Amino acid sequence: MAITDTFKLDGKIAIITGASKGIGEAMARGLAEAGASVVVSSRKQQAVDEVAAAFRKDGLEATAIACHVGDPAQIETLVAETCAKYGGVDIIVNNAAINPVYGKMLETELSAFDKIVAVNLKGPFLLAHHAAPVMKQRGGGSIINISSTAGLRPWPGIGVYSMSKAALISMSKTLAQELGSDGIRVHTICPGLFKTKLAEALWSDDKLMNYILRETPLQRIGAPEDLAGLVVFLASEASRHLTGGTYVADGGLLSWG
Ligand SMILES: NC(=O)c1ccc[n+]([C@@H]2O[C@H](COP(=O)([O-])OP(=O)(O)OC[C@H]3O[C@@H](n4cnc5c(N)ncnc54)[C@H](OP(=O)(O)O)[C@@H]3O)[C@@H](O)[C@H]2O)c1
């Protein structure tokens, strides 16, 4: 098979959570452009309907299914409805996440702590739980968990979020060990700062931006489209010998050690 063909995702079915905007939307478009049928998911049906319609207008295959990943029943339904529509699942991108608080870790309200863990950690766990048996039946698949460089080096002010992202990296590694024999590969992507709604408080802070741009070898912050190539690679046959790995996409900021 020609190397370019190993990146193709024709016939594959992908679910992407948090795909109504930002990094999730860009990754969903990338997967669809590589040939996958994509299930665009987030909490708001109208928002995902609009994204899926835009994809279809460009000749891509997409369906919108709303799912709050903090709700276990909705995750089960997401997998069941995907299987009913497309006949299975091959690729999961656990991308939806929240960071509702900025401040010292021990000042975090318990309700915020619980919400962060439910969405950022329990959601990805449950989606993998429901999708893995389907993937196994189809001979394998790829689970891609979107963590953060904050999961590798915690940022002050976003301690609980950082903790949830560190735990997600750990979860990916364990699942990679346990699911490898079923042909299911599990990867983690750690984005650095990207210009999206989630990180607005960071990139709209001029002092912080100046610092980050000065310290980042590529002298830029990320745009959502920057991750599409990596996610297509990790979902495809081109990455067939990779599992359990953590891929940092931060313009080189963490390369200083
Ligand atoms: N932006 C950065 O600088 C950065 C850095 C490191 C890591 N990341 C990670 O990259 C991923 C994407 O972030 P982003 O920056 O693209 O965020 P974003 O622009 O804020 O988009 C978040 C997406 O998640 C959805 N969402 C929020 N809560 C949800 C829930 N409970 N259930 C299902 N969907 C939910 C939102 O749509 P609805 O409102 O319709 O639900 C939206 O589609 C996250 O895992 C984030 O932690 C981002």
What does this structure look like?
- By secondary structure, this protein is α/β, with parallel strands linked by helices.
- The chain has a single domain, classed as Rossmann fold, CATH 3.40.50.720.
- Helices cover 43% and strands 13% of the residues.
- The protein has 8 helices and 7 strands.
- The protein has helices at residues 22-33, 45-57, 72-86, 110-137, 159-179, 200-203, 206-215, 228-235; strands at 13-16, 37-40, 62-64, 91-94, 141-146, 184-191, 246-249.
- The protein has a 7-stranded parallel sheet with strand order 3-2-1-4-5-6-7, with helices on both faces.
- Helix 3 runs parallel beside helix 4.
- The chain starts with 12 loop residues before the first strand and ends in an 8-residue tail after the last strand.
- Residues 17-24, 42-44, 47, 67-70, 95-98, 119, 146, 148, 191, 193-194, 196-199 line the site of NADP nicotinamide-adenine-dinucleotide phosphate (NAP).
Summarize the structure.
The chain is α/β, with parallel strands linked by helices. Helices cover 43% and strands 13% of the residues. The protein has eight helices and seven strands.
